[in-house]
Specification:
Strand content: 15-25%
CATH topology of the largest domain: Multidrug-efflux Transporter 1 Regulator Bmrr, Chain A
Shape: elongated
Number of helices: 11
CATH class of the largest domain: Alpha Beta
Largest sheet: 9 strands, antiparallel
Oligomer: single chain
Number of domains: 3
Structural class: alpha+beta
Order of helices and strands: EHHEEHHHHHEEHHEEEEHHEEE
Radius of gyration: 32 Å
Helix content: 25-40%
């Protein structure tokens, strides 16, 4: 292999002349001087060494530690450095996730003010400032003193700042019928759904759908104060006799507070955004009852949880929790 000048090496490997000189000053590579030639040149050994340095730098191994990796015959030294780097990268990933979350909070807030001038006081929010101040200007780098504890606190604060995706509305429901299969809620859910499928599933009951309830649903019905029933089925009408294996249950007229997530394309999207149905059920237990109303404790109308499903690829799934209420005496 012919000797290459510093400019040739710089152009071939995309490393600046200044950086090549820095590597040499740190003792990572060696150049040679040809007789009667003023410029540095590099032989095959130096080029191979440079290639190794480039790989390690792209893996974000610090320059000061590269010589330990390349010059130490004991692999344990390299393993220790690589492991430490993995740990640091994990912290960077967490920090970047925090930055992303902060920006998403800003976007959510600003979308509600789309026709209003940019609210500068948003940047002075006392709960956001400490998070941002803990981050460095350097791209993909965080301050060395930013601990995982700091980042965990940041995540907690962001959870409080995030725009709620739960909505609550009130509706009055006439007496209705619910057609499905009935299982104790503590049953194995896989077996419940297998049983539903064995009975014919949605195909059997779809023709009885009550409009506008054009979405299939499953439901938890608190049949009495001590026993919950899990139904796979839907609200129906014009059912004279339940198909074999299905149960026809009557729900009395009642007013409800309906707590609902937004519509999302898939179950997985709901789980990711809302933590499964738990957020709805938490609201069910803690929702503020409107003035002049109280919870209705009648055992026959304790609808606890509903999951809707449509064939719409955008509005495919949502979770609901229904809280029965009545006017205060």
């Amino acid at each position: 292999m012919e000797l290459q000048t510093i400019s040739q090496v710089s152009k071939t490997y995309g490393v600046s002349v200044r950086m090549l000189r820095y590597y040499e000053a740190e003792g990572l590579i060696e150049s040679k001087r040809k007789e009667d030639y003023a410029y540095r040149v590099y032989d095959e050994t130096a080029i191979k060494r440079l290639q190794q340095i480039i790989i390690l730098r792209k893996l974000q191994i610090p320059v000061k530690k590269i010589s330990v990796v390349l010059d130490n015959p004991d692999a344990s030294a390299a393993i220790e450095i690589f492991t430490q780097n993995i740990s640091e990268l994990d912290e960077e990933i967490t920090a970047l996730s925090t930055i992303k979350s902060i920006l998403k909070v800003f976007v959510d807030i600003l979308q509600d003010k789309i026709n209003v001038s940019f609210p500068l006081d948003l940047m002075s929010d006392t709960s956001i400032l400490p998070l941002v101040e803990s981050l460095s200007f350097a791209k993909y780098k965080i301050k060395e003193n930013l601990s995982m504890e700091d980042l965990n606190k940041a995540s907690e604060t962001l959870n409080k700042l995030s725009k709620p995706k739960i909505k609550v509305f009130q509706m009055q429901h006439e007496e209705f019928l619910f057609l499905g299969i009935e299982q104790p809620s503590n049953s194995d859910m896989g077996k419940v759904w297998d049983n539903f499928g064995n009975m014919g599933g949605w195909e059997i009951i779809a023709k009885y759908h009550k409009k506008p309830y054009d979405a299939m649903m499953v439901i938890w019905h608190n049949n009495n104060p001590e026993y919950e029933i899990y139904f796979n089925g839907t609200i129906v009408e014009n059912v004279e006799e339940a198909p074999a294996g299905f149960t026809l249950s009557k729900f009395p007229a009642c007013e409800f507070l309906v707590i609902t997530t937004e519509w999302l394309p898939t179950h997985e999207d709901i789980y990711r955004e809302h933590g499964s149905q738990s957020e709805c059920l938490n609201y069910y237990n803690n929702v503020q009852i409107p003035d002049g109303y109280v919870r209705y404790g009648g055992p026959d109308c304790q609808i606890k949880f509903i999951e809707r499903e449509t064939n719409d690829s955008v509005n495919g799934h949502r979770f609901e929790a229904w809280v029965p209420i009545k006017k205060a005496d």
